[in-house]
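Re: that backbone. Tokens:
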């Protein structure tokens, strides 16, 4: 590390790990650093200080975070740790006693206080765009509408890490969304730990945006966001009955017809042990109703295999659910014990190799289902959003049914004249297990 000279602002390196909610936390810290005149360094070795924003949800994420802290310390003496692993400060400090400060997630003020103790504030403030510093490409951005969660799922420690539900004022959310659109964002991805619960903690009180009264509730928020003229994609939709009204907005074209619902399992007994909605027949009926309301809807979900006590029969029940539900996109995780999670105390631990075998079996079944869903789209004309363009691969895009980093792509071999952030009209001509292939149509948007 080389210290900043008197005529050079202090330099801060940054490592961002974890989910999109953690990405938003990183963006907020980077925005504050830039506003106060700190220079963001692309190299830990050249920085005067390094901040590591960690993930601490499962063992693999904890290991990755600890490795990242070690790598930061290998190149710099001044390291601050923040994020979800920061809740377990004793673990961080036991392994790396030279770390100068540890804070939890969503803790911009605490991080800045630690930065100020180590690096004095520069004399001159920095210029920051109205939308702040972002880690995503220019044409899409995450919009976090609440922090924390009020659920007590036995496999999850998010409420321990991030606290109870705390909704942002609706005018603040809308102001940020408008700033993003003004900056050229073409797709806003709405995130929270429990998105449909938005406003529940404040009794859905009425707020005001541009002089217009609006309830602090997802339905009103999604409807207003849908007026901004960009793609609006909702993530982490806990399956409340009120989600049906959101699907109606999708059918009206106000927001993308994309529903990200973490069902987690299909066995009523396992769902009860997870403390999740425990009626898989009701889940199937709701899926049918959503598709009746919005035939173009894409439904993605996540499932856990090998939860404590899961029998072979209950796993087979999960596979039958998938065969009947025919979800478009599915993620699967072999159960991983998380320190502090109530599920750790449940009897009937499933061997690790069985958990993983079941995960692979589930994904193999879902690959067939997903491929059939994609094959059904061959010949359709759709609008896509361009993410990348290269001479070798052409244009890499996403359809309304594809979220960045987790879903598939739409590959357009002829990418000449297309730029990232463009909306383009295409015809689907082929597919593989995950991706669509398409040709451009005349009259692109």
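Recovered sequence:
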């Amino acid at each position: 590390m080389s210290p900043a000279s008197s005529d050079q602002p202090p330099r801060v390196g940054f490592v961002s790990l974890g989910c999109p909610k953690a990405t938003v936390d990183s963006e907020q810290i980077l925005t504050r650093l830039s506003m106060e005149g700190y220079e963001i360094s692309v190299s830990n070795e050249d920085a005067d200080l390094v901040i590591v924003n960690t993930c601490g949800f499962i063992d693999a994420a904890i290991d990755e975070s600890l490795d990242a802290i070690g790598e930061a310390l290998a190149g710099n003496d001044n390291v601050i740790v923040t994020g979800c692993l920061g809740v377990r400060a004793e673990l961080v400090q036991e392994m790396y006693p030279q770390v100068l400060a540890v804070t939890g997630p969503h803790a911009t003020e605490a991080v800045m206080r630690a930065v100020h103790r180590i690096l004095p504030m520069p004399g001159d403030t920095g210029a920051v765009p109205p939308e702040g510093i972002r880690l995503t490409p220019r044409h899409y951005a995450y919009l976090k509408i609440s922090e924390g969660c009020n659920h007590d799922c036995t496999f999850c420690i998010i409420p321990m890490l991030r606290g109870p539900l705390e909704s942002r004022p609706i005018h603040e959310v809308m102001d940020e969304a408008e700033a993003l659109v003004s900056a050229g964002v073409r797709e806003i991805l709405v995130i929270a730990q429990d998105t449909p619960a938005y406003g529940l903690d404040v009794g859905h009180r009425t707020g005001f945006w541009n002089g217009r009264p609006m309830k602090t509730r997802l339905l009103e928020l999604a409807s207003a966001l849908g007026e901004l003229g960009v793609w609006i994609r909702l993530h982490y939709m806990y399956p409340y009955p009120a989600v049906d009204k959101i699907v109606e907005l999708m059918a009206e074209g106000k927001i993308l017809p994309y529903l990200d619902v973490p069902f987690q399992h299909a066995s009523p007994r396992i769902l009860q042990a997870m403390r999740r909605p425990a009626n898989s027949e009701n889940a199937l009926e709701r899926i049918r109703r959503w598709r009746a309301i919005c035939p173009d809807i894409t439904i993605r979900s996540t499932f856990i295999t090998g939860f404590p006590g899961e029998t072979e029969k209950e796993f087979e029940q999960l596979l039958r659910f998938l065969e009947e539900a025919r979800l478009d996109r599915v993620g699967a995780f072999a159960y991983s014990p998380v320190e502090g999670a109530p599920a750790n105390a449940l009897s009937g631990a499933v061997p690790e190799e069985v958990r993983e075998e079941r995960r692979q079996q589930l994904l193999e079944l879902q690959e067939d289902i997903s491929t059939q869903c994609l094959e059904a789209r061959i010949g359709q004309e759709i609008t896509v959003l361009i993410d990348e363009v290269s001479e070798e691969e052409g244009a890499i895009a996403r359809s309304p049914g594809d979220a960045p980093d987790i879903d598939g792509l739409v590959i357009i071999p002829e990418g000449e004249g297309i730029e990232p952030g463009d909306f383009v009209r295409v015809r689907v001509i082929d597919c593989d297990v995950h991706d669509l292939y398409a040709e451009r149509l005349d009259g692109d948007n």
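The mean pLDDT is 92. The CA atoms of residues 35 and 128 lie 6 Å apart.
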